[in-house]
Design a protein that fits this description.
Blueprint: H1 2-27, E1 30-35, E2 38-42, E3 54-57, E4 64-68, H2 74-107, H3 111-155, H4 162-210
Antiparallel strand pairs: 1-2, 1-3, 3-4
Length: about 210
């Protein structure tokens, strides 16, 4: 046993320099880059070539170890980071959409159940639209009445009173504001219809896939 251990130790001592040399050769690199239109190679990379595109070669085997592109400018780096963020946000949005689709299929046993869930939202917004339309009609009627009063005063050569002018201005502003609210509600109603149609299509596609086509 002692002789065996001694032989192994001797072999290790003999191999150590070779292993160390191989390790050093493995760590060494040959760099090749272009400078002023000429290809230059060397075992050290000068500061002037640090940001340049280069090829790194193992001098022992002649094989390419790495290809390094040129350093990005601040603008290019910012653009790359922005693109990476955009891609990550898109991936997250797609994952969220898949989760919503799965939740939708698991929440509604039938397409009719899905439509009933939308019906509640449709009823609420339809009631809001109805109320807004009545408000617009009432404000318009009130404004027309006050405008007639102002017109009659002018026809009879009387000055239009300041309170009436203030009321006309206020009523007109209220009318414009109410009309904007109504227009927003009508857009939301259209978007809700489109959302329901898309939900129907996704629901049919997902349930069909679960049934195997």
């Amino acid at each position: 046993m002692t002789k065996t251990i001694a032989r192994i130790a001797c072999i290790a001592l003999l191999l150590a320099p070779a292993l160390a040399s191989a390790q050093r050769d493995g760590d060494r690199r040959l760099y090749c880059w272009e400078e002023n239109g000429r290809k230059i190679c060397g075992d050290a990379l000068p500061a002037s070539a640090v940001d340049a595109p280069r090829t790194e070669i193992n001098p022992s085997t002649g094989l390419v170890r790495a290809r390094v592109g040129r350093a990005l400018t601040d603008e290019e780096r910012a653009a790359a980071e922005a693109e990476a963020r955009r891609a990550a946000q898109q991936a997250e949005a797609e994952a969220a959409a898949r989760r919503r689709d799965i939740a939708m299929v698991e929440s509604y046993a039938t397409e009719a159940d899905l439509e009933r869930a939308y019906d509640n939202r449709i009823i609420l917004i339809d009631e809001s639209i109805k109320t807004s339309r009545m408000g617009v009609a009432n404000l318009r009627m009130s404004l027309l009445t006050q405008l007639r009063q102002a017109a009659e005063a002018e026809l009879h050569g009387r000055a239009v009173g300041k309170p009436l002018l203030q009321n006309i201005t206020r009523q007109h502003a209220d009318l414009m504001r109410q009309q904007e609210i109504l227009e927003q509600q009508l857009r939301e109603r259209e978007e809700l219809d489109a959302s329901l149609q898309q939900a129907r299509e996704r629901y049919r596609s997902l349930t069909s896939a679960r049934r195997g086509g």
